[in-house]
Amino acid sequence: MTERAARYLYLARRGEALADESGLSERGRRQAVLLGRRLAGRPLSVVHHGPPARAAQTARLVCEQLDGVPAQVSEPAGDYVPYVPSRAELPSD
Prior knowledge:
By secondary structure, this protein is mostly helical. The protein has helices at 26-39, 53-63; strands spanning 47-49, 71-73.
């Protein structure tokens, strides 16, 4: 039997945004830095983030606390309005 290395997935929301959501507030930047410090020393290979600027800014600040871990944009991680089916699309029960 071959032994597999453990894999972990850490999920985090972006830091607190400015009122106009154009980027992170000072508090949001601090949150991102603290998250990066908390993850330092973990065996991370990449930080995936959504396309919005505030998500990219969070990932950049997190990665600055990590040793050589790159940030990579991931389209599926974007901010999307959930699809809500119409009544006709739902099962009758």
